């Protein structure tokens, strides 16, 4: 069943309603190519995170990727844990179609399955308890994050691990001073994004206000041995073309979705930055970089 009420998260790409005063709507399937290319660019970060998990989670039989999107990370799980079966769960069937195609290309099609439906409820349809349940940037799209974590824990085998990727730092692409406009543009965009994120959460069905203390939330959901670690994507200048394309896409979406919340000077700076005809735009600048930090919080279900 397709799900039609999601909005993108924090430092994710945005699209859809440019006048999001009262409805931060997003069609996930429409974002498929973007989610996929972004996750591919972030592969080194995910590989580090998975290697960290692999030190603790030995020979999992079943791994569930909850809110997998197009399944780039699901595919990395298949590679990191060659003995495991992987189930990718998402509300968007077109995204899961991509996940299955990717698993096939990786030669893991025979130990890869998908489950389509609305989280957290759909998790109850999993046939077997998971040894490792991963949810990256998906829990924050659910109205009641505490209840969502509890539903995840419910699906864990005793001794199983839940790992959620949530929070970290806002990504940086540009020096503080880019030679025009007021320095510090990305920090001010970040402030606008925080407000957008709050509105997005408030408009979710069954939205519950929550202190975003992920270790405490994991503990409250019944997990032990909670720990958190942050992983970097560090692509210094000069960046490869696909990193440049990601920055172009990301700032273009910021302008389209959030431009109205920036002051006119910053809006003009952002317009220049995404204008392919401007030699100082992110299409051409030599100083472009990608520095991103995402945090993984994990905990273990008591035996
Ligand atoms: C930001 S994407 C994250 C994708 C992937 N985990 C990653 O980190 O690249 C969020 C995903 O959660 C899914 N999602 C959001 N709300 C959902 C819900 N209520 N039920 C099922 N899936 C949902 C979306 O379809 C989307 O694929």
UniProtKB/TrEMBL annotation:
Signal peptide: none annotated. GO terms for molecular function: methyltransferase activity. The keyword Nucleus does not apply. One of its GO terms (biological process) is methylation. Residues 8-23 have a biased composition (Basic and acidic residues). Keywords: Methyltransferase, Transferase. Residues 1-23 are annotated as: Disordered. This is SAM-dependent methyltransferase. It comes from Streptomyces variabilis. The lineage of its organism: Bacteria, Bacillati, Actinomycetota, Actinomycetes, Kitasatosporales.
